[in-house]
Amino acid sequence: MTAAEPPRSPSAYPHQITERLRFGDTDMQGHVNNAVFATLFESGRVAFLYDPEHGLPPEGTQFVIAELTVRFERELMFPGDVLVASGVSRIGNTSMTLGQALFAGDQRVATAHSVIVLTDLKTRKSTPLPDAARARFEALAIDA
Predict the structure, then answer these.
(1) How confident is the model over 72-121, as pLDDT tens digits?
(2) Of 28, 18, 26, 32, which Cα lies nearest the Cα of 76?
(3) β-pairing, 61-72 with 95-104?
(4) Is 28 helix (H, G, I), strand (E, B) or coil?
(5) Residue-level pLDDT at 2
(6) pTM for this structure?
(7) How many Cβ atoms from other residues are within 10 Å of residue 76's Cβ?
(8) Which residues in 73-128 belong to E strands, given as ranges?
(9) Residue 17: phi, psi to the nearest 5?
(10) DSSP string, 21-60
(11) Which has more confidence, 26 or 42?
(12) Which of 35, 44, 136, 143 is deepest in the core (most CB within 10 A)?
């Protein structure tokens, strides 16, 4: 694996959820529409960032997405389930980068990278990640 190549195994990602594909997710070609991929990644991102057991984000702050890059690798077909795998690939001062992958069975069908910035709700500006958030993100780093 190189720095540009995300892991091909779901086990490399410390956070996972399963989403059920719906008939309405398909397009005229009969495969899951590309816009649905972004929604699936969002579901994984929200479950990752807003896990109530870990109290993130800190009170008075919110996470905002500053960048999203999606790489489509294979068609995704209805019916079925898709595994949304997520993990931290970089931690900065006020932001972190979330690496994600979609898996249908044992096949990786897409990857995404999201830059997530912690912002202050009052000032609407970026704010440093507190130690607790940094420790949580370090514990959820992608296993290279």
Answers:
(1) 999 999 999 999 999 999 999 999 999 999 999 989 999 999 999 999 99
(2) 32
(3) unpaired
(4) coil
(5) 40
(6) 0.90
(7) 24
(8) 81-91, 95-104, 107-120
(9) -135, 160
(10) --GGGB-TTSBB-HHHHHHHHHHHHHHHHT-TTTT-SPTT
(11) 42
(12) 44
Measured CA to CA in angstroms, residue 108 lies from 18, 46, 142 at distances of 14, 20, 15
Closest CA relative to residue 137, chosen from 95, 102, 84, 83: 95
- Length in residues, the chain: 144
- Kindly report the number of other CB atoms within 10 A of residue 107's CB atom: 12
As a whole number of angstroms, the distance between CA 144 and CA 136 comes to 18
Cα 43 to Cα 61, 105, 127: the distances in Å are: 20, 18, 24
Nearest to 97 by CA among 120, 82, 118, 83: 118
Structure tokens at 89: 């690939």
31-60 pLDDT, tens digit per residue, is: 899 999 999 999 999 999 988 887 788 899
What local confidence, expressed as pLDDT, does residue 62 receive? 94
